[in-house]
Structures are given as structure tokens and as C-alpha cells.
Design brief:
heterodimer, A: alpha+beta, 6-stranded mixed β-barrel, 23 strands, 53% helix, 15% strand, B: alpha+beta, 3-stranded antiparallel β-sheet, 4 helices
Amino acid sequence: MSSLRETLARIAGMFTGRRADDDLRAEMQAHLDMETDEFIRRGMAPAEARRKAMIASGGLTQAAEAVHDQRGLPWLESLAADLRYALRALRRSPAFTTIVVITLALGIGANTAIFSVVRAVLLKPLPHRDGDRLVYLRHSIEGATGDHLLFSVPEVRDFRTGAPSLGGIAEYSPWWGTLQGDDDAIRIDLGLVTGNFFDVMGLSPVIGRLTNAADDGAGVPPVMVLTHGLWISRFGGDSTIVGKQVRLSGKSVTVIGVLQPAPYFPDRVDAFTNMVVSPHHVSAFMVQNRVHRMTEMIARLAPGATLAQARNEVTTVAARARADNKDSYNPASHYQVAVVPFKEALGEGARLTLWLLMAAAAFVLVISAANVANLTLMRGVNREHELVVRAALGAGAGRLRRLLLAENLVLTIMGAVLGTLIASGGVRLLIAFTERYSARAGEIRLDGTVLGFTFAVSVALALLLSVLASLPREGSFASWISAGVRRMSGGLRKQRLQRGLVIAQVAVSVVLLAGAGLLTRTMIQLSQVSTGLRTEEVLTLPVQLMDPGKVDPKHLLEADAANKVNYDLMRREIAALPGVVSVGLGSTMPLRTSMMSFDVAAEGRPQAAGEASPHVDLRTADPEYFRSAGIPVLKGRDFSTTDEMSAGHIVIVNQTLADKLFPGEDPVGKRVALTGEGLKFTPFSSDWRTIVGVVGDTRDGGLDADPRAALFFPFSQELAVTGGLVIRADSNVAALASTATRIVRRIVPGVPVEHVLTVAQIKDQSVAPRRLNAELISLFGMLAVIIAAVGIAGVLAFSVSARTNEIGIRMSLGAGRGQVEWMILKEGGVLLAAGLAVGLMGAYFAGGIMRGLLFGVPPHDPATFISVGVMMAAIGIAACWFPAIRAARVDPAITMRAQ
Amino acid sequence: MADKLDVKQGTLALMVLRTLDMLGPLHGYGIARRIEETSKNRLTLNYGTLYPALLKLEQEGFIKAEWGLSDNNRRAKFYALTAAGRKQLAREAKEWNKTADLIAAFLAPKRGTS
């Protein structure tokens, strides 16, 4: 306790400075005077008395020093002195300081920026209360399709009763609706949730309340919880929103609260409502049918329960359910329920990409640190004279080491400050980048933890650099001084270290370049994938006329007939626009996945036991659809206007489905039917339908996914659950977007029109994330190569200057310029070759790790590796050339005279 | 000279506190003289020992310092015991007595066990 007090007093003492010194001097003077008086009183002569008193004092200066040490914190003061000295020394070599600070800033800045993303997306605790206890249940079927399923209400019930380690199970059903404003309408993504959802998730409201058990069931008023994002963007953060009514898909819904900012999961969502908002979700159908799967499950582990327990129980419950309900689970489909920690599930899409970027940034830092180490080593050699002089003046090796550390600290901290500035400039860009991968992108910021990371990295770097700059051992100074050493050449150990660093730089650059090359090739391959459409002059304009919340099931057919009239009106008006070649109607836009997916059966082909029935995307098309989209009809015929409702059921299949159902046969004329339990909840029949044509595949699941099996019904024959227009123009179709949108808005005011995109734009969206990956890694790669090139050139230049004498002697003995150049080039070439070899090995491993990010390029793509090797070699040789030329310019006469 | 002792920091602090307790506020010279006299000149205190010790006691809050006039009208800094210092003195003295007893018992000339 008193030591704390003493420390505080000492800290205060550091600032009293001169006044305290004066005070002490006066006090000791008084002491001396009194002692002198005493000696005089005892009979001494004044001068003698004074001398005796001085002797008794034991030295005033020493005493003042001792008191001074007691007053403040001596170590801190000497550190401050060291730092002041370091700043002075660095100001004397501005070129060195600038290069080092910029190099470090690039390395540290890249790491700070990427770490801020990794922390926000992967490391930071969730905003959810005890978020580590949350688990996500993923239902999937294995096999060729390997689809992700949701859960049915009876299945959720199985887990509620059978898995006590899941303390609370929240249900979430993805849905959508139209939010009417005063003069516009937007489509919003909804999460239909059970009353316990927010309680299980551990989330709190910003204002108002969240749902609770009273909001469950059929006969309750519909309520809505806004996400923080929608509250700000749509309602301007209106704090009086609670209790107000909003129009959601024609229904009046009460806003009860605003949720705290939280990452959305599993889907992007704008608002949450209770289940009653969708009559279907509270119907007996939904609640009782085991295969009607529309619900996601997130659970909270019960107190004391472990993840392993939960996994065991969930597996047991799921297996029992399958055994008890044999007709609901086709054994060939291999149903599986995985229990994934919520945080992991949230970070899934981003993990590989982010760690890759973090590794790349770390590599850049390694290279810049190596460069700085080399620069420091060289400077160290030039400073040996200075150090010897300091040692001669009495500085011990420890003191010198501390001085170097202070200097390196100043350098790395300056680099860190500049690097943090660079990173803070890049944060906005990074958020935009990360949004594609993670719901937590909004949490990215340069906060205390990130800055702490940056600071720790800088201090570690400074320590490393100080260790590398090898000082002579304590005691050996004396021999230097007595030998009158003026300057020593870099010792062998030092040169070996420098060479090692250059090899490491080259190797790391090669790894980064190879990664960049693989990702760039991936991007190129992807953008060259054929969409399946023969033209890009196609505009897609999805218009959702049937609003699931709005339509009374009893009047479904009337509503659909009215919608079809409107669709036809839009089609005809847009087709009349100048430049438009044709306009087609269909349920789903080309290159987009259908929301409807079913099992399908082929006539006369009984399913083999244990074989899963093929899955198809159900889409509809009118006679103009394929022509407008540029999808070729490969066999049979297109739909025609004569295929009326009465004309009998006909379908068109795509190539993938034709190959799957009728391998090696002509599918035209054969019959197929939708099948499976899920069918009975839909307006589609299981009637047999005759195939009239086969169309080409399109990349509906993204350019990097295999084409999906698709079955097209005639647009006019089926209920238009979804819909949209496909517009083909002879040129510049993008220019039509606004006119076409206006026409649609006029015909159906109040219906949201979003995602009006040309095929080229859709394609670009599919490539964009990979392009960003490739660009970022390429940027790091370039940075690394430049730094490494500077590193090679620097080390060789230093070697040349250290060997000037030798070169001079060689030349005076008859060596030609070419020979000298070759000698230096060879020195660099050896380093380069070693670096290349190590780097290519590293790239081989890195490629394997990156496998998941690649498309159309093998992870050990020889073409990429060879071109990276050649490129690095070329840059490296160019970097060696400058010092080599300088070496050849050595004038033997001058060198010899200087000796 | 051979029987002069070096003074240890801890014991010096105790001596200073005790001196101030007995004599009241006193300047550095007075403290030094008193300690030397009490030790029958077996201890000498140079400034480099005395003044850091005084500063430390002041920093710990056991004594406080104030400028004043000495008997022969010299300006000098006077140190006085604080309440905390008095308490510390009692505590330290007790500790010291205990330790001294203990050491004395160890170093006592051999006698028959009682």
C-alpha cells in the first residue's frame, strides 16, 4: 500500500524537476553550513571546518544523484532519453528513415486492415447474449444433389421433446412481403419467428419489445420487429414507431419494437414477424405435415449441456424419427442433421477467404520486416565506428542494445501510425468487400483491440530487428577500441543472415504471386464460362404479382387470371418499344434459381430401391421466353401459342434433366410427372406430362455451379406463383431498363420492381467476389515483389560496396567489366534461385489450401507456376543488374589509391 | 574506523522515525547528529544515504517536510512525523523487537537446555 503511494509520488516527482533540485541544493547547503558551524564551535579554523564538513557529506553531487533516483522513475527517464536520442539519430538519416517507415507502414497497414476484418467476422464475441451457447441445426440430404433442407414443424417438435440438451429452440421461417409506403412499395425479406426466438438468440430491443409466447399461434394480432437497418433506412430511426401500424402485403401489422444491431442469419432479413402474418404458417398443413419443411432451427444449449451431448441427442432423435416415419424419409437420400456452433455457421462463407487474406498480409509484413532488417544491418555496419566510440566513452553493451531498441521502436511505431492511417482509409472498402461473405461486415472497425494488435506487432518487430542487429558481446569492445578499429566489414554471420532474408523474401513473393495467379485465372475462367444464353443483350425484369400474404386461397384462380392479364399487358407494351426484338414471360429469370424444386418421375422407369428420385427446378415459360433469353431449343419444339389450357399437359426439359432421365434416348414424346410428398402443398398436379422439346442448359446456380436439372411448364397453363419479363433488344438493352420499369410501375402500381438487370450484369455479379479476391491478393503480391526486388538490389549493392577493394584488385589484374558484372549477377542469381525453389514448394502447399477458392484451375496449375517463376526471375535479375553495373564501373586506379 | 557500521535502509528509516518521535520536528543535520550520537558514533551518515531515505519516507507519507528557521537562525527544512508515521513506527518497532529477540536467542551463548 505504501509502495503504491510511493510510486504515485515518484510519478509526480518526475514533473517537479528543477524546483525540487533547487530545494535539495538549499537543504544540503544548510546541512553543510550547520556542520561547519559546529566544527568552528569546537575550535577549528573556518577553512578546515568547511573541509571536514565536506568530507563528512560524502559528496554533494553523488547525494543529489541518489536523491534524484529516489524522486522519479529513473528507468523511464533514461528510456525517454533513449527515445529522444533515437529521434535525433533518425533525423540525421532521413532517406533510411523514410524508406523503412513506408515499408513498415505498408506491411503493418495491410495487417491492421485485414485483422480488423478477421476480428469482426471470425473472432469477436457475438452480440448475442452468451452467443457461444447457440447452435445452428443443419438438415441436409447427401448424394448427388446434397441439398440443404429446412425442418418441418413435426421435426422441430421431435427435438423439442427428445433433446433436453437443447435448452431452447427458436424457429425461423424465411418469407417475404411488400411493405407499402406513402408513395412506393418495397419488397422486404421477412423472418417469421416463434415467440421465443429473440429470447433464445439472446437479443434485446433498442426500443419497444420483442416477440414472446403470447405472439404464437393462429388467433393473435400480427406484430413486427424491425431490424436496426430497416428502422434507420426506411423509418429514419423514428423513435415513435413502436405501436404504429404498417401495411405489409395488404395487411395491417403493428410494429412492436426495434431489434439491436445484430448479424442476420441464416438469410438477409429486414424485419421479423410472428407466424400469423402468413396464414399458411399457422395452418394445419404446415403444423402437421412432416415433410413440409419451411423452418430453420437455432437452439441454445441448456445450462451444463455440451456440444457433444447435443450432437448425440440430435442424431438419436433424428434417427428415431426416420425409423418411426418410414414413408416420410427416403433412405436413399441419407438425411443428416448437423449441429454447428452458431458462430461457426455465421463465419462459414468468409473463413477461408479471410484467413487467406490474413496470411497474404502477414507475408507482406514478413517481407517488409526482412527488408527493414537488411537495411538496419547495413546501417549497423556503417555505424560500427560510432558504436565503438560510444563504447570507448563508457557505454556498456546493454546500454547500446537499449539504444538500438529505442531506435527500432521509434521506426516501427512511426510505421504503425502511418499504416493505421492507410488501414483506416481502407476500412470502408473492406466492409463493402466483406458484405459479400459475412453478415458481420458492419462490425468492422479499427477499435482498441485492433490497435492493440497493431501496437503488439510493432513492438514485436522492433524487438526482432534489435535482436538481428548483432552487437558484439560484452567485453569484446575493449579489444576493438585498443585495436583502433575504424570500421569493420559485415561479419560472415551477418552476411549469411542478409542472404537468408533475401531468399525468404523471394520465396514469400513467389507464394503470393502464385496465389494471385491462381485466383486471377479462376476469375478469368469463370468469366469465360458460357451462361447458356446465346446473347447478352437481354434484360431481366422480375415482377412479383402474386403476394402470398395477400391472396385468399379460395380466390387463387381469379387472382392468377387477373395477374396474367397484367403480365400480358406489360409484355405487349414493352415489346412495342423501339429496339425491342421480343419479350418473353416466365416464372423465373434466366441465370436465377427457381424457388420451386420437386422430385420428378419418368414414365415406365420405376425407381430402383435405394435410389433417390431426381430433383428438378420447376420453371414456367411462354412461347417467347426461350427466344427472348437466347436459350436454344435443341430437340423437338418450343412452346407455341396454340398450347392452350385444354391442349393437354406438355413440358420442356433442359439438357441436364434429359440426360438424367433418359440417357442416350430421345426424350421428346416421353412422359414425366412431378412427385413427392411436398407436392400436395403446391398448386401443381402430379399428372403425367408429355415432353415436347429439349432446351440448352443455363448456369442458374451461378457460373461456378453445374447446371441444374430444370423442367419448364407452359406459363399460361400453370399458376404464376412468381413471374417476370425477359426482354431481348438488338443493341444496348441496358438503356431499356428505366423505360420498361416505368411501364411496369404504371400497369401495377404498388408492386416492388427490383433487380432489373441485364444478363451481362448478372454474370458480372457472379464473378465479382472472385475478382475482388484476385485483385486483393494480386495487390499484396505486387507489393511483395516490389519490396523483395528492392531487398535484392539493396543487399547486392551493399555487397558491392563492401567488395570494392576486391573488385578493384581483380580489375587491375585484368578482369573485364563483363566478368565483374557476371560475378555480381551470379551472387544475386544464387539467392534468387534458392528463393524461387523454396517459394515454388510453398506455392504448391498454398495451392492445396486454396483449393476451395479456385474454379476451372487445378491447385497446382503448372502454367501459373511457370509464369510466376519466370516473372519473379525476370524481376529479380533486373534488380541484380543495377548493382552489377555499378560494380563494373569501379575504377581500379581510384580504389587502389584509396587503400 | 573498523567499528563503523553501514546503515541499512530499513533500519535507517526506523531510526529516523524514532528520532523524530522523541525530539519532534528536526532538520536533516539534526537528525544525522542525533543518530550518530545515539549510536555513540559507530554510525556516520553521509548525505547520499540520509536524504534519499528522508525523501522515501516523505513519499510514503510517514513524515512531512517544511522549511523553517533553525536555533541559530538558519533556514532549514524541518521534518515532522505524521500520524501514519507514528503508526508505522509502532509497527516497525514491534517487528524489530521480535526479530531482535529471535536473533538474540539464536546467538545466545550455549547453555544447558532449560
